[in-house]
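Exam revision sheet. Question 4 asks you to relate a sequence to its structure. Input first:
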Amino acid sequence: MIKRDKRVRRLAHGVILIHLLVTACRGAPTPLNTPAPHPTTPPAPTASLAFMFSGDATELAAYQQLVTAFTQAHPEIQIELLHVPGEADYQRRLAADFAAGTPADVLLLDYRRYVGYAATGNLEVLEPYLAPSPIIQAEDFYAEALAPFYWKNKLTCLPREASSLVVYYNIDLFAAAHQPEPAANWTRDEFLRTALALTRDMDGDGNIDQYGLGLEPTLINAAPFIWQEKGEVVDNVFRPLALGLESPEATRALHWFINLQLEHHVAPDAAAETAESSLSRFTSGRTAMLLETRRIVSTFRASANFRWEVAPLPKFKGRRANVLLAEGYCLAAASKQKAAAWAFIEFASSPTGQTLRAFTGRDVPSLKAVAESPAFLDSTTLPTHDHVWLDAIPSARPVPVLKYWDDIERLTGEELRRAFYGQAPLTDAIQTAILRTEDYFKLK
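Answer key, structure tokens:
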């Protein structure tokens, strides 16, 4: 235990030093009359590998920064970034590359989607690489983030993050409506009353100009509220054979969830959401609250022209629940450069790599030492309530890790969307979702 405590302290101290160095470099002026260093010729790379990922332009910039730092530390390894902006295009590219036997050496995969590749032997088991690492060990990560990346008791990918859902809110709109900012222990009833008070027809024409809440009617967004009711999204957590949404507990939670739009109209209806997304409305200052993950922080920092913060999901009967959202670095079994690929995964997952990512605002670091350091808990940038994500980790659960979970989640989301927008009764939507997904639970 003493040896472990010393190692954790060294990791934490290293993270703080990285934070201080980066901060100093940001603000320090370039000294005048400093002689230029003699040019040196870097060694020629002896290994070349490809890293493929999905995301927007800010995600690309973040990985360019990470790769630059890596190649400075490992000039013998050259990395090609394969950036596929759209998630659907990324999934198609992954499937095609694996089918052709030419996947990138390192891949970024969500725990909800990696199993299809792990089950067919396309991903390298990482424990033999992690165990002797002098830089990172399994216990350095939040156990909640690491757990879903074990496939058949073998660690298949390393989690980049330990994110979850939070409530983003517009401080200026709260102030204009004389509403108190959300408390750390607010309830569902308080959440709904706040959303109602912030849903407003500003010009009296009978149309809503400002919504109290923006959210997508997905299974991921509904799951925490199902778990708060002590319901489950599947029939059996350990050996799921079907959806579990028809249980009284799950149905009650889904009724509450869809009634946010269907009965209370605090969220846009189908026509309004089609015309403009809730994310766009929040960013432009016309929606007061938004249910989202950490991924949009960098966007708000760059474009929001109002004061904003984050709050936890509301509690229900004193119970808190959240859903884990995490992507991981995976090593393709077909890679011809496994040692170099592991070196990159190790660096990206190290305190140095995760600190660089933390400064972008996009991740909740999966390394405890980084998440609990000034690199993430930075009170000088928005949001200042970063601890909300760390407080959620103990109650964050993964959805089932199944080979065809992506299809199950997609089809279920289509039915929840119909219920949310009043296009089908909830009971019908649940039964249809169960029927549409039953064959996917049987596939192995």
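Marking note for examiners. The chain has two domains: 2-24+37-163+326-384, 166-324+398-442.
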